[in-house]
């Protein structure tokens, strides 16, 4: 599978860069890719886990994959969070806090409620700033807990 090979190359490159640049910290979303690397390249996966423990590699994302949200049902989106957050918690002992969707083509109006109910207080994207007609000045948001 090409995605797994690309993941292996990318993750190996990041680990090499971490050896060269001690100040480097890396964030990676999509628990599905972690699962594929774990299954296919277990030695690489163990090195990634070591960097996570050291605080140099940040496993985030909240969803199983960076899912497009404009066509998926609410149930499907909730399951993305359920499986994504569960994997991060069980594999790395951390609670994912960020819905990381840098490059999707749509968002569900249900996302704020799903974020609230799944204890995911942060949202990050870059797509909102690509619109030439409806400019928005920010691409990262914090869900104010006292407003929901």
Care to describe what's here?
The protein has five helices and five strands. Helix 2 (31-40) crosses helix 3. The protein has 148 residues and is mainly alpha-helical. The strands form two sheets. It has a three-stranded mixed beta sheet, with no helix packed on it.
Biggest β-sheet description: 3 strands, mixed
**Secondary-structure element string:** HEHHEHEHEE
Note the beta-strand portion. 5-15%
Strand order of the largest sheet: 3-4-5
How far the N terminus sits from the C terminus, by CA atoms, comes to 42 Å
Helix content: 40-55%
Instruction: Give average pLDDT, whole number.
Output: 89
- What radius of gyration results from the CA coordinates? 16 Å
**Structural class of the helix and strand makeup?**
mainly alpha
Low-pLDDT runs: none
Number of strands: 5
Number of helices: 5
Query: What sort of overall outline do the alpha carbons produce when their principal axes are compared?
Result: globular
SSE blueprint:
Blueprint: H1 2-20, E1 26-28, H2 31-40, H3 42-53, E2 57-59, H4 74-92, E3 98-100, H5 111-117, E4 122-124, E5 140-142
Parallel strand pairs: 1-2, 3-4
Antiparallel strand pairs: 4-5
Helix pairs in contact: 1-2, 1-3, 2-3
Keywords:
5 strands; two-stranded parallel sheet; globular; mainly alpha; three-stranded mixed β-sheet; 148 residues
């Amino acid at each position: 599978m090409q995605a797994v090979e690309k993941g292996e190359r990318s993750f190996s490159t990041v680990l090499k860069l971490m050896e060269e640049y001690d100040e480097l910290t890396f964030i990676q979303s999509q628990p599905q890719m972690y699962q594929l690397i774990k299954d296919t390249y277990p030695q690489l996966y163990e090195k990634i886990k070591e960097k996570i423990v050291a605080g140099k590699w940040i496993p985030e994302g909240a969803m199983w994959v960076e899912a497009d949200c404009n066509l998926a049902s609410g149930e499907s989106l909730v399951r993305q969070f359920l499986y994504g957050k569960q994997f991060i918690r069980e594999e790395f002992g951390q609670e994912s806090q960020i819905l990381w969707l840098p490059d999707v083509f749509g968002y569900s109006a249900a996302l704020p409620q799903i974020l609230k109910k799944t204890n995911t207080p942060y949202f990050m994207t870059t797509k909102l700033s690509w619109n030439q007609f409806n400019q928005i000045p920010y691409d990262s948001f914090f869900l104010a807990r006292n407003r929901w």
